[in-house]
Amino acid sequence: MSDNAGNALADKGLPEMKGWLLKWTNYIKGYQRRWFVLSKGVLSYYRNQSEINHTCRGTISLHGALIHTVDSCTFVISNGGTQTFHIKAGTEVERQSWVTALELAKVKAIRAIESEEEEEEETAQVVPSQEISSVVRDLTERLENMRTCYDLITKHGAALQRALNDLESNEEESLASRTKIVNERATLFRITSNAMINAGNDYLHSAESQGHKWSKMLHHEREQRLKLEEIIETMAKQQSQMEQAAVLVRQNKPVPPMVSSSTTMSLNATGGSSSNTALTSDDEVEFFDALEHTSSGDSTFILKLNKRRSSSEDQFDGQTGSSSESDEQKRIIKTIQQVSLVSAPRVASGGGHNNDDEDDDVDRAARPDSRESRVSNLRSSRPAKARRVRVPDKPNYPLSLWSIMKNCIGKDLSKIPMPVNFNEPLSMLQRLVEDYEYSDILDAAANCKDACEQLAHVAAFTVSAYATTTNRTGKPFNPLLGETFECDRMDDLGWRCLAEQVSHHPPVAALHCESSKWLCWQEFSMTSKFRGKYVQINPLGGAYVQFPQSGNRYSWHKVTTTVNNIIVGRLWVDQHGEMEIIGSHASQGNKCILNFIPYSYFSREVQRSVKGVVMNQRNEVKWVIRGTWDAQIEIAPVLKTSGTPDSPTYTTGEYKVAWQRRPAPADSDKYYNFTTLACQLNEEEEGVAPTDSRRRPDQRLMERGDWDESNKEKLRLEEKQRTVRRQRESEAEHAASEGRPYPAYEPMWFKREKEEGSEDFVHVFKNTYWTAKEAQDWSGCPEIY
């Protein structure tokens, strides 16, 4: 591996490096030798040098990547999402050479991308009519100068030609006199020619200075027009479909079901003996009427599948290599995605690139727990604090969202400069804490003796986090680097929580919440794109819960959120996708598969439906889950399974409500549709850290209704953050040029640790915040406001 050191080059200011390193592949093969190439802000690897021109095994963009040193020779690069490279160098010097080059490349990549975005933003601006008139007037004047010069050249050129003709004649006039006239005419011609050249250069310079800008503007407008045409065409098709459906409804004819996107799982448990709910998929599903319920009050579910395996699935299995799962487990996991359950009448339902087959990521496992002894008796005996129940009403500042976002189609949502008019007076850190509004579900789960029943309650808890998103369309404030939020509700709700913004590129928030019965932590990041008609938000990072009494631990990833009707109509939010909740430690092997059904106007499904099953270590379905993510979730145990593996029949017990949404305050529509808990999150409190979200001036001004001042403060804070970041980048570049390491940003209350049984790293709580608060020692906190 000695080829690595000293291979750093410069290409247009972006560092390059190449050499052999060891990359973690899996637990069977461990670290494998790979050829790595750092070029133009991207780290790529190959099995050998001969593959460089044709077979790249994996890449990761350093813009937004996290670079973490593990030990003297090992370091980790992660994009905060699905890609993580675990790399080992031969020596500490070699490891430091790579880390320094990677950090410098990250700084350069961020700067280059931001420069491009600033140029795009300038291009996207509408040119004032005065500027257009001024430019046109200037070009017209220069063109007139060229025409004048052209006329003079023509005039003096003709005079020179006549003088030359006279020079050849045999007239009596002296040769000297005729020669003098020729020289005079030639001088005039030369002067006018030079004037023509100068006028032409002036016109060309002026045209070029404006032409490049206008050309980019024209290209931008053309792209915007094409995207708008596509959006309008889609809306026209939808309008036509709705009109056809309306005609069928007036004629009392059935409306054919249409699903807006592919549904991978449907679990139907509605009342009625013949409720064959339509399922759209690429598989053949046969539906059967529900059997009559037994005398004991149990319900019987019948499941029938004709699974057609696609070639893409075969190819996928071929790429994943070895696995600890049995073939039967794989079959059940895949076929459960196409399940259709029909219930007897019981309870109505509530309203980057990597193709290396050796380099699969290892199975995720929950991180080691060093706090079990500390969470056994957290509940405070102090009296409950009196808290506010509402915030000031939202003022009426009319502003078109489309007017702001029409030039931002295809961009990351976090890159779009948004005024506070489209915000709500809460930080994203506070929004994350809202996940624990229904923490009583976790209290109930902690009391469960059966691990599968406990997992069913955990599933209900994960769904409850989306309850308020149906009518909460305001954007939370993006946290500043180092911003924190503390929420101590031990006096009434029995838990306390701390969140911190631990990274800016990429934006990552870490959260820790503890109770006497359970412990939760999560690392939240996201990618978001504005698509013209809607904004799609894809969460990254995992969430975890542990129950110390039983040792059971579960992890999951959040589903996709889409905000619709950006152009016209009322904004509305949809949650869709599949969530897999995986058990580990004492609950190893248990899992729950939840499917959030995407909204469709033409679907016969109950809108906002969530359906799923809980399976034990033997892949037997033990609990069934149904409901909606905006109202309630019901769960029922599977008492008996009969039939064939391809057509099982589940006999279930009675459904019980695991979660039900509390009614919103009567006048909450006047203040951002906040719940009571949301109103209390930004309530001013003494003794919190100086970096707490409640001390953020732009957010406080917005809550008080002073939006103009809030916008000014928001710009000031963002510029202050950019100045600090540029300073760090400059210091990092200076350190790299001197060949010395530059320390990466370290969060105040969290640290990155390796998960037990995994090569993944997550930010975990240092357990120092509450001690610092008790002593009111905030000496280490950055000054961010």
Q: What overall geometry do the principal axes of the alpha carbons give?
A: elongated
Q: Count every helix, treating DSSP H or I runs of 4 or more residues as helices.
A: 13
In the predicted model, the low-confidence regions spanning at least 5 consecutive residues are 1-13, 258-376
Computed CA radius of gyration, to the nearest angstrom: 34 Å
Number of E-type strands: 30
Main beta-sheet strand count, sense and barrel state:
8 strands, antiparallel
Fraction of residues in H or I helices = 25-40%
What proportion of the residues form beta strands (DSSP E)? Answer: 15-25%
Mean pLDDT: 77
Distance between the termini: 46 Å
The structural class is: alpha+beta
Question: How would you summarize this macromolecular structure in one to three sentences?
Answer:
32% of the residues lie in helices and 25% in strands. It has 13 helices and 30 strands. Belongs to the OSBP family.
